[in-house]
Amino acid sequence: MSRIPRPDRTLPAPAAAAVAVVLGVGVTAALDLALLWWAALIIGVAAAFAFVAWSGPLVPDERRAGADGTKEQGTTLHTTLVVPTALVLAVVSGLLSAWFLDLSLIEPVAAALGALVGSAVAFTLFHRLSAMLALSFAAVLAAGVIAIGVTAAVLFFSGIPPLPTFARMIEYGTRPNSLVKIINDGTTYYLAAVAVAIGFKMKLFNIGVDGQYRLAALLAAAVGGYVVLPPVLSQIVVIATAVAVGGAWAGIAGYLKVARGVSEVISTIMLNAIATGITAYLLSTDRLAVEISTNNIGTPPMPESSWVPGIPAGFLGSEQEIFGFVLLAVAVGIGYWVMLNRTRFGFELRATGQSQSAAEASGVNVKKMVFLSMLFSGMVAGLVGLPQLLGSSHYYALDFPTGIGFIGIAIALLGRNHPVGIVFAALFWSFLNQAAGILPFDGIPQEIAVISQATIVLTVVVVYEVVHRWGRRYQQQQIGNQLGATAESTTEPAQAVPSGTASEDGSADGGGDTAPGSDGKRDGEAQ
């Protein structure tokens, strides 16, 4: 492809992106008349990517910034890893978009729109994807392949055919009602993972998210059930109660950490046990609970003014509703990203997590950062139970979901504590849970999903760490090479021998080349 002649001029980035999109959509629409939609889309996105790769050198360099200032275009790692990874991600993005749109649109339109998304992603990733991020994607892909292999081996040696089992899970997990369930559960998992990730950024292990969200949900449900307020005010009061309770419960561990040096792991585990005892004590008909059914008690059902309206899922082909709380989860993710990358607090948090001694030497109050990190982690943890509370059950009872805090730890590790990575990890985890629900009807143990979840978390942590260390070494070598090349280019003019001889006062005898009126001196000063 590089042998195809290119014009001797630059191509503006918007024009290159527009041509790639038009090419991808056009090829897909034309081939869709003779091929299956997914085959036409793959070829269309690949054609768009081929144009992007061909026109890459024509796009100005400022549109192709490398990671950490390194020049990655043309390097071996960029050619062998970044470019194939960008192609695969572009094709996958197009296929997923087309499949999702096909639930509510006709197939040709969905395929064309999927090609549009895939072509746009192809242009963006080719010019923006760094080697370190590509290595991260490669690590996740490798971990996924290993997890699938381990699960298939377990199924095979158990006498269960792996391929039909996987096909059955995918078929059930992509049904309209299953998609709604995956999104709703993923919302809860996402909030739990963000709460854990805030602590991880400070090298703090908040293992007490489970106790924090259960105690917060109980007291928030009690307030919503006993205090009747107008619609918007009632929802605000319930959410504020949950946030305050979760933050206060995690703040106890933060205070013990900074004031007495107690490990947050030990204190949060103990606080989990205490929260369980307090919940059991308060959830009694003599205190906060009332009888919900014959075998169940819970807080009084909240009035409809406290509910968060759901989002109709007709575009997915389902009659169920998506939790309206998903919008607040999106806001939490955006706030988490802004806090980490656009605020002084986020910078100090990351700096303290990298090295407390260095941060303290730079004037950062480390104890304050530790306490605030635990406080904010607990505040987000207080929101974990609200999607279920305000969107479905409307009361806290004995059958309220438990163990979500520990799932959040696994999802935070799987998503590498990144707000976008956690989204995909939460949806993937929820998909495995939902897809495994059909296995008992086929006589297959439902624990297969647990094996896959545990294996992929373990392999992602190990593989990512190995790949990340190798990538850092490679990046350091690239920076060293560039610094060496820059130093050589800087010293070359100074090493050149002038045509005249320099005098002691810095003037030069130009051998008759002096400018008129300069009194024997060259124009300008020697640098």
Automatic annotation (TrEMBL):
Keyword Electron transport: no
CDD domains assigned: TM_PBP1_transp_TpRbsC_like
Record key words, sorted: Cell membrane, Membrane, Transmembrane, Transmembrane helix
Compartment list: Cell membrane
Membrane topology recorded in Swiss-Prot or TrEMBL: Multi-pass membrane protein
Polar residues biased stretches: 484-493
Renumbered residue ranges of the record's region Disordered: 484-527
Transmembrane segments: 12-31, 37-59, 80-100, 106-126, 133-158, 178-200, 212-229, 235-256, 265-283, 322-340, 370-390, 396-415, 422-441, 447-467
This protein's name: ABC transporter permease
Native source organism of the sequence: Streptomonospora nanhaiensis
Organismal lineage: Bacteria, Bacillati, Actinomycetota, Actinomycetes, Streptosporangiales
